[in-house]
Each structure stands twice: as C-alpha cells, then as structure tokens.
Amino acid sequence: MNAPTSPKAALPPNIVVVDHPLIQHKLTLMRRSRTPANEFRLLLREISMLLAYEVTRDMPTEMTEIETPLTTMQAPILAGKKLCLVSVLRAGGGILEGMLEILPAARVGHVGLYRDPVSLAAVEYYLKLPRDISERTAIILDPMLATGNSAAAAVSEVKAAGCQSVKFVCLIAAPEGLKTLHDAHPDVPVYTAAVDSHLNDHGYIVPGIGDAGDRIFGTK
Ligand SMILES: O=P(O)(O)OC[C@H]1O[C@H](OP(=O)(O)OP(=O)(O)O)[C@H](O)[C@@H]1O
Ligand SMILES: O=c1cc[nH]c(=O)[nH]1
Ligand SMILES: [Mg+2]
C-alpha cells in the first residue's frame, strides 16, 4: 500500500501544500481508478476553484470609495499586476476551467508539451501567450508535476516572453519534480494539493492518479 506523503521538512522552500479537507476529500475520489471521466473532470474543476483562492491569497488590494444603499465607505478592490493563466496542454485545461470561474478577467496562454515516453524529456508542440504577459503575474497550470521537466520547460517559455512573476499550480507533485523545478527556477512558488511518495520506473507518480490527460479526456 502506498500512502501519499507530505515530508514538508525535506521539501524545497516555496511549496504550499493546500491540505484543506474539502480538497483532500475530492482528491481521494479522483485517485480511485473506477472514477469515470465525467466525475473526474468535475472534481478537478471544483478543486481548481479552491486552489484559486490559495494562489491569489497575496494579491494586493487598494481602498476605493463606494456608496452602499446606506452610506459611503472605503472598501477594498484588487490592485496591482493583472493575471495570466497559462494552461499546459492537454491536462492543464482541466484546472483552467475552474480557475476561470474564480478569475474571469484573467488572460489565458497555452503551452503544448508532451513527455517523450523513453527519455521523459518535455517536447514542445504549441505556444501562444498574451502579448502583454510581461506586465502580468503568470499562474502556470498542470495537474501533474512528475519529473518536473514539463513544468520547468513551461516556466522557461513564460520567462522568455518577459514575465518576471510566475507561480505554478498542480494537483499532485512528486518530490523529484519539486526539486527539478526548484533547481531550474528557485523563484517560482508551487501550490499543490498533495505531495506523493515517488516516481515509478516510467516516471508516473505513485500513488498518483495515473495519466491525467487520459483520465480527463477518456483517451485510454
Ligand atoms: O513532470 P513531467 O515528468 O514532465 O510530467 C508531467 C507532464 O505529464 C503530463 O502530460 P503528458 O505528457 O502526459 O501530456 P498530455 O497532457 O497531453 O497527456 C502532465 O499533464 C504534465 O504535463
Ligand atoms: O503520474 C503522472 C506522471 C506524468 N503525467 C501524468 O499524467 N501522470
Ligand atoms: Mg498524458
């Protein structure tokens, strides 16, 4: 039996494990191999909305004067840099849906990456980012951080486009991937619902959820 681990002391800094009970419950339902694709997608969307709260917790606000039906008051509104959500195709689309529910004004970019099944290197096949991404905080979305090769490549593309403020959101991270991403991009914080035990010989996260893209789109 493989239990997920949260060896917080051994992890690189800049990792936020969002261990809210609602998220943990929904993640358990997603992990079950018999959970069908339609339920899997819905659970991922719900968890993504909850992760959106955590990854935006440090967004600055400023005060503005408004009129309520009873009086005028100083009230907070969002201030500072705008956001760009960057979905790593294919599986990032599963997180993007939920994030856009909470952050409807965000711009959206896409990075198409697949893992070479033998070398586990990330192979890029698509890139489309908003022109003004350098003026935004980018939140890169991908459910799985396994070897970390895809995440590191996605962050490199976003930085190459001029973005200096980057965060990474996933559902499950492996310790190996957290280290690879931190070594390549120590300035990028990672928000994850779980840190699992290890990678298997094929680079899959154990216990994990299997192939996220296949489970979202029912392709296996
Ligand atoms: O950390 P890594 O070892 O790079 O693995 C993680 C990547 O693997 C999965 O994508 P996959 O290559 O299966 O593509 P898909 O989303 O099109 O299925 C996942 O969505 C990540 O992008
Ligand atoms: O466990 C894993 C590892 C990489 N990609 C996935 O979709 N799942
Ligand atoms: Mg896949």
Automatic annotation (TrEMBL):
SUPFAM superfamilies hit by this protein: PRTase-like (SSF53271)
Pathway listed: Pyrimidine metabolism; UMP biosynthesis via salvage pathway; UMP from uracil: step 1/1
Keyword entries, A-Z: Allosteric enzyme, Glycosyltransferase, GTP-binding, Magnesium, Nucleotide-binding, Transferase
Documented activity regulation: Allosterically activated by GTP.
Pfam family name, one: UPRTase
Catalytic activities: UMP + diphosphate = 5-phospho-alpha-D-ribose 1-diphosphate + uracil
Residues reported to bind uracil: 205, 210-212
CDD domains: PRTases_typeI (cd06223)
Domain of life: Bacteria
Catalytic EC class: transferase
The record's free-text note on cofactor binding: Binds 1 Mg(2+) ion per subunit. The magnesium is bound as Mg-PRPP.
Ranges for domain Phosphoribosyltransferase: 17-219
Residues that bind 5-phospho-alpha-D-ribose 1-diphosphate: 90, 115, 142-150, 211
InterPro entries with a match to the protein in the record: PRTase-like, PRTase_dom, Upp_B, UPRT, UPRTase/APRTase
Cofactor(s) demanded: Mg(2+)
Signal peptide, first to last residue: none
Statement: the UniProt record of this protein carries the keyword Ribosomal protein: no
Keyword GTP-binding on entry: yes
Enzyme Commission number(s) of this protein: 2.4.2.9
Transmembrane segments: none
PANTHER family: ADENINE PHOSPHORIBOSYLTRANSFERASE (PTHR32315), URACIL PHOSPHORIBOSYLTRANSFERASE, CHLOROPLASTIC (PTHR32315:SF4)
Biological role stated in the UniProt entry: Catalyzes the conversion of uracil and 5-phospho-alpha-D-ribose 1-diphosphate (PRPP) to UMP and diphosphate.
Family as reported in the entry's similarity comment: Belongs to the UPRTase family.
Name listed for the protein in its UniProt record: Uracil phosphoribosyltransferase
Originating organism: Ancylobacter vacuolatus
